[in-house]
């Protein structure tokens, strides 16, 4: 059983697999104590002819997903908030981490192999945060 400091309540993250791409990431809800490190894994399988350009997306309650991190560094939202992700093409991974989590980091995170312009409700079925 975990005990939590009332001054630093636990932070809840939810991560889902993106439908329509061969992507696997940390599933379900990830609970982290504030100021603790956070890791969410993302791996993918693709044909050798496809050049991956992985992205992380963030979705906050009541809002649509938005681009959060890209392997090219052209999406700054996640980096500006202290998140990092390293693309390892040989391992086919794009794991995301943050050294010190904050309460405002609570959200649903999606990994995709390429930039996804829109996600409809049938394409993404995120769990509600606990």
From TrEMBL:
Q: Which organism is it from?
A: Phrynocephalus forsythii
Name of this protein:
Ig-like domain-containing protein
What keywords tag this UniProt record? Adaptive immunity, Immunity, Immunoglobulin domain, Receptor, Signal, T cell receptor
GO BP terms: namely: adaptive immune response
Query: Gene3D superfamilies, per this entry?
Result: Immunoglobulins (2.60.40.10)
Is Signal a UniProt keyword of this protein?
yes
Is-annotated flag, keyword Signal? yes
Q: Which residue range or ranges hold the Ig-like domain?
A: 9-130
Source species, domain of life:
Eukaryota
Q: Which InterPro entries match?
A: Ig-like_dom, Ig-like_dom_sf, Ig-like_fold, Ig_V-set, TCR_variable_region
The uppermost taxa in this organism's lineage are: Eukaryota, Metazoa, Chordata, Craniata, Vertebrata
Q: Which GO terms describe its cellular component?
A: T cell receptor complex
């Amino acid at each position: 059983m975990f005990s939590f400091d009332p001054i630093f309540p636990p932070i809840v993250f939810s991560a889902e697999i993106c439908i329509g791409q061969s992507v696997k990431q940390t599933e379900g809800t990830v609970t982290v104590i504030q100021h603790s490190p956070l890791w969410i894994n993302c791996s993918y399988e693709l044909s050798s002819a496809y050049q991956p350009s992985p992205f992380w997306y963030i979705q906050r309650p009541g809002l649509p997903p938005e681009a959060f991190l890209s392997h090219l560094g052209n999406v700054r939202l996640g980096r500006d908030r202290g998140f990092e992700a390293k693309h390892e093409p040989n391992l086919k991974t794009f794991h995301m981490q943050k050294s010190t989590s904050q309460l405002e980091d609570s959200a649903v995170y999606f990994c995709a192999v390429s930039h996804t312009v829109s996600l409809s409700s049938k394409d993404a079925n995120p769990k509600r945060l606990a």
